[in-house]
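Retro notes, item 3 of 5
We never archived the inputs for the NAP complex last cycle. Fixing that now. Sequence and ligand:
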Amino acid sequence: MMNNKSRIYIAGHRGMVGSAIWRNLESKGYTNLIGRTSTELDLRNQQAVNTFFTEEQPDVVIDAAAKVGGILANNDYPYQFLMENLQIQNNLIDAAHQHDVKKFIFLGSSCIYPRLAPQPLKEEYLLTAALEPTNEWYAIAKIAGVKACEAIRKQYNKDFVSLMPTNLYGPHDNFDLKSSHVLPAMIRKFHEAKFKSVRTGVSEPVAVSEPVAVSEPVELWGSGTPLREFLHVDDLADAVVFAFEHQLQENLYNIGTGTDLTIKELAALIQRIVGHTGEIIWDSTKPDGTPRKLMDVSKMTNAGWKAKIGLEEGLKGTYKWFLENVDVLKEVKM
Ligand SMILES: NC(=O)c1ccc[n+]([C@@H]2O[C@H](COP(=O)([O-])OP(=O)(O)OC[C@H]3O[C@@H](n4cnc5c(N)ncnc54)[C@H](OP(=O)(O)O)[C@@H]3O)[C@@H](O)[C@H]2O)c1
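Structure as it came back at the time:
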């Protein structure tokens, strides 16, 4: 039986998702949380991972460690997105199995589902058609993780479960324009265009000065027509802790809000929250990605969990966090 003394290892505890899970568990009184940075423990190294499990003997493993990035990063580094994610998750899943971990929660992403699957995406659409080519490397690694957990569950009757979050946003997101997802990239672009400061380079956080009356134009990728769903990372953390505290009956659950909006609507909302007053230029020579990606969240709703943070409320909090941390924003080095 799990209790607040259970030894819970959160792989990737410094990341956006891992840190949110850590905060949530801490707030609920769990006192035996275990974390290692990638410098302390490189999860691509199987021997190091096995030694860590022998020494720490976790009861529970939450896998929030991965090589994560947007379309550009996936497109430029296909081998790393495939291989490093396979290495990280294989080492964790197998070590957890060998060391008799009681509960394993694997985090994937909605990109595991086929590009043109019917909407909203149901869990059973997995492997029914071709993937979105821009991130298939990452998706194939994640599908392998889902199947590894399913196989352990089926063959050994262990409580290994996979949660597939939709697009996430919130504190500790990656705001580096070379590798970020669409939502944090928009926050940063609108923010930078709002001020007079001359940008010194895409990875340099801009110095905040006085906003100008009419902001610089902002250029955004694609046509703006694709539909996307966004979940606050604190809601995801809540879902993960729910999954930890309950015995879910199946191997795969979607985690989302169940509602979506167009990228243009998202841009307008962020523009208003940031206070950008300039033009938006849509660069339709850049790829749009999947036309629509909305999760069917009825399985998780039926299990007793649903999202609570509205998009506008979540975006306001995220922009506040961005402003407070603009000088120390993390950069992802590929
Ligand atoms: N962000 C999203 O929109 C989104 C959406 C759906 C699903 N997810 C899933 O959520 C999970 C976490 O994503 P995130 O957004 O939190 O990513 P993130 O902020 O980039 O964090 C990833 C974490 O993984 C760790 N990591 C990466 N490579 C490692 C290695 N070789 N050895 C040890 N640790 C390593 C990093 O550790 P260090 O900081 O110590 O280097 C980092 O803390 C992923 O599985 C992702 O698929 C994310």
